[in-house]
C-alpha cells in the first residue's frame, strides 16, 4: 500500500523525514532528497548489507558529487549514459562495503525501529547541515554500525537542497555552531579507534586506515 503524506511547506527538511518515518510501516526506510537520480539496483544493494547483520543500523551509497570520501568517479553526460554506467557499476560486492564512523546520507537506509528509538533527526539541525553527523553519532551510540556501500552509485546534482540556505542564511556556519554547542564530545571520535584514525573495515575483516584527524579538527566539518 502506498501512503502519500502531505506536509506543511514550512516544516524543515529534517522534520519532513521524521514525519514520514513516523508513519512508516515495515522494517526499513530510505530517506532521500530531491536532488538525486536513483539508479538500477540501488535499493537491493542497500538492503543486502543491512539485512546481513543485525548490528548495522545505517547504510548509504556513493555518488558523483559528495564529500566524506563517498565520491565515486564517473564519466557520463546524458541520462542514457548514466543508466549504462550505473548498470555496470551497481553490482553487489560485499568487499566494497566499508564500516564508517560518519556517513553522509545520499540515502539514509535505516531500520525504522532504530530511527524511532533515537527519536529521528534532531530538529535543531533545521537547515539539514550537520544533521548527518549528528544522527551518525547517535546511531553508533545506540550500538549500531554505519556502512558505506561503495558498490552502489546514485547521481547527485549537488547541494540543491541546501544551496540557497548557505547563501542567504549562512546555514553551514549556524549548523556547525549548533553541532558543537549541543555537546558532541571529542571522545566520540576516539571510541574504539587508535590515534584518532578513521578506520575502514570490509567483510573480510581487512582494515585500512585512510587518514588521521586531530579531535575537533575542522576537517571533520568539510
From TrEMBL:
<dbReference type="InterPro" id="IPR029044">
    <property type="entry name" value="Nucleotide-diphossugar_trans"/>
</dbReference>
<protein>
    <recommendedName>
        <fullName>Glycosyltransferase family 2 protein</fullName>
    </recommendedName>
</protein>
<keyword id="KW-0328">Glycosyltransferase</keyword>
<comment type="similarity">
    <text>Belongs to the glycosyltransferase 2 family.</text>
</comment>
<keyword id="KW-0808">Transferase</keyword>
<comment type="pathway">
    <text>Cell wall biogenesis; cell wall polysaccharide biosynthesis.</text>
</comment>
Amino acid at each position: 500500500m502506498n501512503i502519500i503524506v502531505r506536509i506543511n511547506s514550512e516544516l524543515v527538511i529534517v522534520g519532513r523525514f521524521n514525519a514520514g518515518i513516523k508513519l512508516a510501516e515495515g522494517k526499513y526506510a530510505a530517506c532521500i532528497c530531491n536532488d538525486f537520480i536513483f539508479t538500477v539496483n540501488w535499493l537491493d544493494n542497500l538492503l543486502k548489507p543491512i539485512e546481513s547483520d543485525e548490528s548495522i543500523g545505517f547504510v548509504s551509497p556513493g555518488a558523483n558529487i559528495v564529500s566524506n570520501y563517498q565520491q565515486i568517479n564517473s564519466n557520463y553526460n546524458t541520462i542514457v549514459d548514466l543508466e549504462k554506467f550505473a548498470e555496470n557499476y551497481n553490482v553487489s560486492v560485499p568487499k566494497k562495503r566499508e564500516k564508517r564512523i560518519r556517513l553522509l546520507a545520499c540515502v539514509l537506509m535505516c531500520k525504522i525501529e532504530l530511527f524511532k528509538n533515537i527519536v529521528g533527526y534532531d530538529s535543531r539541525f533545521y537547515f539539514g547541515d550537520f544533521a548527518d553527523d549528528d544522527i551518525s553519532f547517535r546511531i553508533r551510540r545506540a550500538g549500531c554500525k554505519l556502512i558505506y556501500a561503495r558498490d552502489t552509485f546514485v547521481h547527485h546534482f549537488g547541494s540543491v537542497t541546501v544551496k540557497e540556505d548557505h547563501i542567504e542564511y549562512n546555514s553551514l556556519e549556524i549548523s556547525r555552531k549548533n553541532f558543537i554547542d549541543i555537546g558532541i564530545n571529542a571522545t566520540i571520535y576516539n571510541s574504539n579507534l587508535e590515534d584518532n584514525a578513521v578506520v575502514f573495515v570490509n567483510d573480510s575483516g581487512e582494515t585500512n586506515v585512510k587518514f588521521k584527524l586531530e579531535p575537533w579538527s575542522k576537517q571533520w566539518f568539510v
